[in-house]
User: Fold Glycosyltransferase RgtA/B/C/D-like domain-containing protein from Shewanella sedimentimangrovi.
Amino acid sequence: MMILVNVGLRVIIPIMIIMVFVLMSLSQPINGDIGWLFHATTQWLNGKELYVDIIEVNPPLIFYIMSPAVFFSKAFGVNPVLMAKLYLSFITLGLTVIHLMLMFRVVHKNLFFNMYLPCILLIVFVIPGYDFSQRDHLAILLLLPYLTCRYLKFFKHIEFNFFTIISLGFLAGLSICLKPHFILLVISCELFWFVKVKSINLLIDAMIYSIILTCALFYVLLIVCHYTYISEMVPLALATYWTYGKSIYSFNLWNYLYFYTVMIFISRFIESESNRILIVFFNILIAAAFINFLLQSHYSYQLLPFKTLFYINLFVVVTSLLGQVSGFSILSKTYYFISFLLSFYYLSMYMKENWRLFEYVYDYRALPPFHLMGYENLSDGVSEINNKFDGENLYVLSSNVWPSAFISGYTKAKWVSGFPALWPLPAIDMYQRNPEKLTKDKIVRISNVEKNVISRILLEIEIYKPKAILIDARENPSYFIDDFSYLEFFREEHMLSKVFDDYSDSGYEINVYNRVKFKVYIRNQ
Assistant:
């Protein structure tokens, strides 16, 4: 019986978790940011200049990471959405395997295979949901092997070969280059172990040199090949990108902070010294990850590093406590059996509800259409755009990135703007209509970039002469503080006032979101 339970936990449950992840991926449209980055990388490889023709706030590393996916998509004729999902999934799987190989030296063998393996698969592949493989998600997975290696070196006194040390340092360096805020996690890690080992000489090793060298080479690349990111994009982002993000009260943080406080308190009562040190170590990293989140725009994907570290630490805390309960063994047959039954039940129920997606992929060798995912209106939007604007240039007035991913990834129309969304406009609108709400510093910053942004929008429309302009006509579009109308903004803005002289209201609307229709203005013949 125990053999069957072990096989279930070590083989069946992990396979089911991966199948649930695949079903989740099939049941959701591509993440808007990822869809845009794939399209932007394609345009960059086709000759457009990054940070000149392509307006993006993120450092260039993500474009280099995405480049192989674009190459494979072209070489094998694979749908861009499918290729982006497959490629990022394999990267995530590879990084997860590296982490597991290191954690095998931390967690008891039976506990590792029966509990930690399925738990980390849930944490990495299922919990992120729609935010899977976002930049912050990839960054924490790049950093985890380094963090685990530091614990193994300074507490377990395990030495690694030179190639492993350099490689893990390289991955950590990539993490910082991908998300510069992650330097906080590295600093927190090194400070923690400095307090423990009380020797700077032990800390400054080949891994640290590898991190420093990787970051140095990246910033040389940034200055030499992408200096416009520093000279143009950073000032534009500082001036206007602050309007983006959500309120920190929308993330249910109090529950996390409550359990985090409990973990800090409980760590004092963990009998196993190795587990106690690991818990304290992760508590420090969780705090750094939370500060990292607060310093950014407050998107759900920016909380993934915090969640990843939180849930890993929660696993260590729970298993440590259960192992201390008199008469109960965390390695007991009963515990494993109950865990297997519960996991099998919930995973199988999810698979049963969504199995039709697997059937569609098997029958048609294609991604499921939107209506099978439950997004019937998006299916209508794809049909309308393909019927009316097949091969035509489209321009979209929206402050959200999803339309760029939707049009470039799912339709036959062409997304021609260098903007993923008109993200500078919410700040510019506030500057024009409510300057009293802004600090003097923000007023100066916005005034320095306003003309360039407006000129850029006008130039794109004049050059590409889009067949249609789709407009988010909601009273309060995404990220605008007050009610806003793109049509009124264009008509009142001197440089843009004549744009719609060449366009007429078509009288119909197109679903660009599942529940939001955009007005369509057609270019006059």
